[in-house]
């Protein structure tokens, strides 16, 4: 089937529920029953939830699995360029024929009943992954955990919790404890959970829930640690200390993500991923739009050869803190100029706070190809000015980079950030 067929089906599926997000397991459970419960026929599953770092952690774990000669399926969201990226079968994006077939089967089985886009496409992912053999499934929650459509899994091989912070407050709650209740919902009785670094209030919730349901935990700071030492990632797992290469992914935060991936690789039941494969995976991992340097394409050319262009899809306050911590090492003393667009549902002011004093200017842009979904560039610029930042307004991403090329007189680092939608547009148009 052609690309057009899957696009048409996806467009129809997006209209089956009046809300984009409606957290519940009833609809997806009904559909999976109609499909013969493909989720019960999957290879062993690593289920991951958290606010930031889920994708990077799974990417590193996937690279380790590959290096060990094992095969894994992976389900993530959202995608950056094409929907096919969400469903990886043995390391490759699902092909158009398989995707269209799985979507069509789900659409027919659903019989026009209300269901969200994420729920029905998650069912399609389960169909696809159940049909192909693999050693493991890497399964990322879409939003939260407890009522996320992926949480129909009864007994994961491992549950992973990345750092929890404020995001999606309208759906998950207005404080860390409430959000942690949702994220901890992926823990299952008798199934090991590995917990990354957490705020105290989140960790209290996780520990209490695990004790209530009988889920054993390995907790960062109690049972394991990850730290950077020179060019190495050092992981302490109980009484064992291993020294590994730093992850290929940039940013100090990738030390903790890498540590969680290492712990997952070491504690997978019935699969052996040795230290050589773990090290190889850390060296080889690739994860687009996470502090990614762009080295070619129209946007790079528009800036001229004097400046470096970087891209990051982070979009919440914790991501702003991570970017701020990473800018010093990336910039090597050069001025940093941000180009920012952001969804209206995101907290731009708190994303900006840790960044504004560390950058020379901030150019705000509307989100391309998402009319009405993003903050107006003028709104974002007003927040920059209120935080005593140097603001510029551009009508488009291309206008922003062209303006910077005219204004910048010394070698600089330009970072496009604030939204995965914006990052996806950059990757589509700049390839």
From TrEMBL:
Q: Which GO terms describe its cellular component?
A: cytoplasm
Domain (Mur ligase C-terminal): give its ranges.
Answer: 311-419
Q: What is its EC number?
A: 6.3.2.12, 6.3.2.17
Ligase among keywords: yes
Protein name in UniProt: Dihydrofolate synthase/folylpolyglutamate synthase
Q: What does this protein do?
A: Functions in two distinct reactions of the de novo folate biosynthetic pathway. Catalyzes the addition of a glutamate residue to dihydropteroate (7,8-dihydropteroate or H2Pte) to form dihydrofolate (7,8-dihydrofolate monoglutamate or H2Pte-Glu). Also catalyzes successive additions of L-glutamate to tetrahydrofolate or 10-formyltetrahydrofolate or 5,10-methylenetetrahydrofolate, leading to folylpolyglutamate derivatives.
| One Gene Ontology MF term | metal ion binding
Q: Which reaction does it catalyse?
A: 10-formyltetrahydrofolyl-(gamma-L-Glu)(n) + L-glutamate + ATP = 10-formyltetrahydrofolyl-(gamma-L-Glu)(n+1) + ADP + phosphate + H(+); (6R)-5,10-methylenetetrahydrofolyl-(gamma-L-Glu)(n) + L-glutamate + ATP = (6R)-5,10-methylenetetrahydrofolyl-(gamma-L-Glu)(n+1) + ADP + phosphate + H(+); 7,8-dihydropteroate + L-glutamate + ATP = 7,8-dihydrofolate + ADP + phosphate + H(+); (6S)-5,6,7,8-tetrahydrofolyl-(gamma-L-Glu)(n) + L-glutamate + ATP = (6S)-5,6,7,8-tetrahydrofolyl-(gamma-L-Glu)(n+1) + ADP + phosphate + H(+)
Q: Extract one GO BP annotation from the record.
A: folic acid biosynthetic process
What the entry lists under InterPro entries is as follows:
Folylpolyglutamate_synth, Folylpolyglutamate_synth_CS, Mur-like_cat_sf, Mur_ligase_C, Mur_ligase_C_dom_sf
Cofactors named for this entry: Mg(2+)
Sorted alphabetically, the keyword list is: ATP-binding, Folate biosynthesis, Ligase, Magnesium, Metal-binding, Nucleotide-binding
As for family, the record states:
Belongs to the folylpolyglutamate synthase family.
Q: In which pathway does it act?
A: Cofactor biosynthesis; tetrahydrofolylpolyglutamate biosynthesis; Cofactor biosynthesis; tetrahydrofolate biosynthesis; 7,8-dihydrofolate from 2-amino-4-hydroxy-6-hydroxymethyl-7,8-dihydropteridine diphosphate and 4-aminobenzoate: step 2/2
Which Pfam family, any one of them, does this sequence belong to? Mur_ligase_C
Q: Would I find Isomerase among this entry's keywords?
A: no
């Amino acid at each position: 089937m052609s690309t057009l067929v899957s696009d048409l089906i996806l467009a129809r599926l997006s209209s089956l529920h009046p809300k984009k997000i409606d957290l519940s397991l009833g609809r997806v459970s009904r559909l999976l029953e109609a499909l013969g419960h493909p989720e019960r026929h999957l290879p062993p599953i690593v289920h991951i939830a958290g606010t930031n770092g889920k994708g990077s952690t799974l990417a590193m774990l996937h690279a380790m699995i590959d290096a060990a000669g094992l095969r894994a399926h992976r389900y993530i969201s959202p995608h950056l360029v094409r929907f096919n990226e969400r469903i990886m079968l043995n390391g490759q994006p699902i092909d158009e024929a398989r995707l269209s077939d799985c979507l069509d089967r789900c659409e027919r089985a659903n019989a026009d009943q209300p269901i969200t886009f994420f729920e029905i496409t998650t069912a399609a992912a389960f169909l696809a992954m159940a049909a192909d053999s693999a050693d493991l499934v890497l399964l990322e929650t879409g939003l939260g955990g407890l009522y996320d459509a992926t949480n129909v899994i009864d007994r994961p091989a491992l549950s992973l919790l990345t750092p929890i912070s404020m995001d999606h407050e309208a759906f998950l709650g207005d404080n860390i404890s409430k959000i942690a209740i949702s994220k901890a919902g992926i823990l299952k009785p008798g199934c090991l959970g590995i917990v990354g670094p957490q705020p105290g209030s989140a960790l209290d919730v996780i520990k209490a829930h695990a004790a209530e349901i009988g889920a054993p935990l390995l907790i960062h700071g109690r049972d394991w640690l990850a730290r950077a030492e020179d060019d190495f990632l050092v992981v302490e797992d109980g009484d064992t200390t291993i020294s590994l290469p730093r992850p290929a992914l940039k940013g100090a935060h990738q030390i903790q993500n890498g540590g969680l991936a290492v712990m997952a690789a070491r504690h997978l039941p019935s699969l052996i991923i040795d230290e050589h494969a773990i090290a190889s995976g850390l060296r080889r991992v690739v994860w687009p739009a996470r502090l990614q340097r762009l080295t070619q394409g129209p946007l790079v050319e528009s800036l001229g050869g004097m400046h470096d262009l970087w891209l990051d899809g982070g979009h919440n306050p914790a991501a702003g803190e991570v970017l701020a911590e990473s800018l010093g090492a990336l910039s090597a003393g050069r001025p940093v100029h941000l180009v920012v667009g952001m969804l209206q549902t995101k907290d731009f002011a708190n994303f900006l706070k840790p960044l504004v004093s560390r950058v020379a200017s901030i150019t705000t842009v509307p989100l391309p190809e998402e009319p009405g979904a993003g903050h107006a560039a003028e709104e974002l610029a007003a927040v920059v000015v209120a935080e005593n930042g140097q603001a510029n307004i551009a009508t488009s991403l291309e206008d922003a980079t062209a303006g910077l090329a005219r204004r910048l007189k010394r070698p600089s680092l330009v970072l496009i950030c604030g939204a995965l939608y914006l990052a996806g547009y950059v990757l589509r148009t700049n390839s």
